Each structure stands twice: as C-alpha cells, then as structure tokens.
Amino acid sequence: DVDIVPVVRETPGRKPPSKDRGPAKLPILLLREVIDRCAAELDPSFKPSFTAGAYDGRKNLFTPVKFPIANNETKHIRIVVPDSEPRPPRPGQEPQEGPHGRRFDVTFKYASEINLEAVAEFCRGKKQSTQVEASMLTAIMAINVLLRDDVCPS
C-alpha cells in the first residue's frame, strides 16, 4: 500500500489548504516519478522490491520480493521531484534553499500477500466462498497491473 501526499508549504497571509477536501488527484506520470525517486533514494535493501515490482499508478505496488518492512510497520520518506526549470522566487519571498521542486511525503505499508492459488481454483471451476472470491479478484488485479506495467523502465 502506497500513500503519496504533496507537501504544501504554508505561506503567511494565505489561507491554509482545507483538511476536509480529501487527497488531491495527482497525474499518474507524476506519481510514477515519485515512486521512481523512492526507488533511487531509499535504502539499498528496498532495491530488489522496486526492481521486481509493478505500480498501478495510484495506491498499489505489487512485488514478488517482500519489502524489508514488518507486517504492521510503515516506511516514510520525503521525496523532492525537481522542477524541469528553476522557478524564480515570488515577490516578497526569499530564494528557496536546498533542492527545488515539488515535495511529497510517501508512506509504504505492507497490505497483504496475494493468493494466486485462488485464481487457479476458479479456473478449475471450484465453488468459492466470498472471502476466497475477494482474494481471487485482488490476485487478478495484481496480475493485470503486472502485465500492464512498463517492462523496460527507462
């Protein structure tokens, strides 16, 4: 499970963003760039999971290599996606120190293990309980993401 939240800088004199609005819908290409930056900046022990994984462009990162996170833990990282061109400071603001670009707080959390056996049972025509059926649909979604993911990331 992946949560990507833009870090909003509070500016004096401006109304802070509403907490009631819910998460902003970000472009999928931007979210993929954030995930790619995470792969580059996280501890090297995460590298095999990112290399073998497939991201659905929203909330799920499926990987056959388990992340080095315990089942009930989360991993937080702040990522900066650099601007394609440096922006001049706004009137009345001082030039920004450090890396320029959009900042994101990214949280990784172990969600569950995918049971591919449920798909095989369905293909054999065996009757399934509602719980197994939900597991099977999750497995099919994971397979779909794996097949559609960029097989040759640049």
Q: Can you walk through the features of this model?
A:
With 154 residues, this protein is of the alpha+beta class. It contains four helices and five strands. The two termini are 24 Å apart.
Instruction: Indicate the radius of gyration in whole angstroms.
Output: 19 Å
Please, what is the oligomeric state? Answer: single chain
Q: What characteristic shape results from the CA principal axes?
A: elongated
How do the strands line up in the largest sheet? 1-5-4
Query: Could you tell me the number of beta strands?
Result: 5
Relative helix content: 25-40%
Mean pLDDT: 81
Which structural class do you get from the secondary structure elements?
alpha+beta
The helix count comes to 4
Largest sheet: 3 strands, antiparallel
Instruction: Name the poorly predicted regions.
Output: none
The fraction of residues assigned to DSSP E strands is 15-25%
Intertermini distance: 24 Å
> What order do the SSEs take from the amino end to the carboxyl end, as H and E?
EHHEEEEHH
